[in-house]
């Protein structure tokens, strides 16, 4: 069995074929699609977070709304950029959302990806140290504070004359707390080194459709090596639980004329090399498109996909919830059984 989720960037635009023309469209359709996906049998609804862009930017209200309208499906992010976050406020938001969902939150966090603006986190009031110009260390430091807060750390000196009685003596921690949330936190790693760091902290691993280009091997092989190093470090650390590992893929089963018209050209997709500011070369994974039988054969050769317990299918959100539900159902019906995912 492999968990199958989807990852939405939540784009909206006035392009001719867009069914998500406003922010309102995107948010309400995201809730509608999550309900439909749960009925289809999809395991998780995940949302990308980008600031200063016409995409999802503030995850917790959307996650809470989806949680209130569903009962089984996991809800998560892939990823929240921790350079923009107050870690203590984020801890309270995450715990609140997890309680609303009944413990279904799967929160992906990281340093983030290339931004729409230069050093956008500075506009939010966050200033990294002089030797940390891109905020990578600030994000990791914030993440560790966040982990301590959701784990019940008590650090704030209580008021001797509080408005309400304190629940226990001594320092106070962030409220509310959601038991078990710590085990459902993920770090989005773009390198083998940061994957090992995630394993040291004891958090799950999210690896997306790009990783830092660390060899001349195909994307899926480099990603497989990243996952293997994470697993080795996890075992070395002696953590008691089994971690979860996700990879993101663009996979389109072409089962009708509209599928072929929209995604037939993606059958020729290949890995691509690009440049990311502050990181250097990155390799971007290919898209998969074809008949279900073709996809089954191609996906069997994807070495990273074989190691992951969770696959997040990136979806074209501007095509609307009905068509995206069709895309997801085609994977569940025609591709997943042939791969042993169902």
Q: What's the total helix number?
A: 11
Corresponding CATH superfamily: Luciferase-like domain
In angstroms, what is the radius of gyration? 20 Å
The string of secondary-structure elements, in order, is EHEHEEHEHHEHEEHEEHEEEHHEH
Q: What would the CATH topology be?
A: TIM Barrel
Give the terminus-to-terminus CA distance: 6 Å
* Major sheet: arrangement of strands: 1-2-3-5-6-7-9-14
How much helicity do the residues have? 25-40%
Just give the CATH class: Alpha Beta
Strand percentage lies at: 15-25%
Overview of the molecule:
- The chain is an alpha/beta fold and 342 residues long.
- The chain has one domain (3-339): TIM Barrel (Alpha-Beta Barrel), CATH 3.20.20.30.
- It is built from eleven helices and 14 strands.
- The chain has helices spanning 23-40, 59-69, 87-101, 120-123, 136-150, 192-201, 219-237, 257-263, 292-300, 303-307, 320-339; strands spanning 3-8, 44-47, 74-77, 80-81, 105-110, 185-188, 204-207, 210-212, 245-249, 251-253, 272-276, 280-284, 288-290, 310-314.
- Strands 1-2-3-5-6-7-9-14 form an eight-stranded parallel barrel, surrounded by six helices. A three-stranded antiparallel β-sheet has the order 8-12-11, covered by helices on one side. It has a two-stranded parallel ribbon with strand order 10-13.
- Helix 2 (59-69) links the parallel strand 2 (44-47) and strand 3 (74-77).
- Helix 1 (23-40) runs parallel beside helix 11, helix 3 crosses helix 5 and helix 9 crosses helix 11 (320-339).
- The model has no long low-confidence stretch (mean pLDDT 94).
């Amino acid at each position: 069995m492999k968990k199958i989720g989807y990852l939405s960037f939540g784009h909206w635009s006035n392009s001719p074929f867009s069914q998500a023309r406003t922010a309102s469209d995107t948010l309400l359709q995201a809730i509608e699609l999550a309900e439909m996906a749960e009925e289809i049998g999809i395991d998780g609804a995940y949302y990308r977070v980008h600031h200063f862009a016409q995409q999802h930017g503030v995850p917790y209200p959307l996650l809470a709304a989806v949680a209130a309208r569903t009962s089984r499906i996991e809800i998560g992010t892939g990823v929240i950029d921790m350079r923009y976050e107050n870690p203590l406020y984020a801890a309270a938001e995450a715990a609140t959302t997890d309680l609303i969902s009944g413990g279904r939150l799967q929160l992906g966090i990281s340093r983030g990806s290339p931004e729409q603006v230069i050093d956008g986190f500075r506009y939010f009031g966050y200033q990294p140290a002089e030797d940390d110009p891109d905020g990578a260390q600030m994000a990791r430091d914030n993440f560790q504070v966040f982990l301590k807060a959701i784990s019940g750390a008590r650090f704030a000196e209580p008021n001797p004359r509080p408005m309400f009685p304190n629940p226990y003596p001594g320092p106070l921690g962030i409220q509310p707390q959601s038991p078990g949330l710590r085990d459902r936190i993920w770090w989005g790693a773009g390198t083998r080194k940061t994957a090992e760091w995630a394993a040291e902290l004891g958090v799950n691993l999210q690896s997306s459709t790009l990783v830092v280009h660390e060899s001349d091997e195909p994307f899926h092989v480099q990603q497989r090596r990243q996952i293997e190093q994470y697993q080795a470090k996890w075992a070395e650390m002696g953590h008691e639980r089994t971690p979860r590992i996700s990879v993101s893929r663009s996979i389109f089963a072409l089962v009708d004329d509209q599928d072929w018209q929209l995604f037939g050209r993606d059958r020729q997709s290949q890995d691509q090399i690009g440049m990311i500011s502050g990181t250097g070369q990155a390799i971007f994974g290919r898209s998969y498109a074809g008949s279900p039988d073709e996809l089954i054969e191609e996906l069997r050769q994807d070495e990273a996909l074989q190691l992951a317990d969770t696959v997040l299918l990136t979806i074209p959100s501007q095509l609307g919830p009905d068509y995206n539900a069709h895309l997801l159902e085609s994977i569940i019906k025609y591709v997943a059984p042939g791969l042993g995912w169902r």
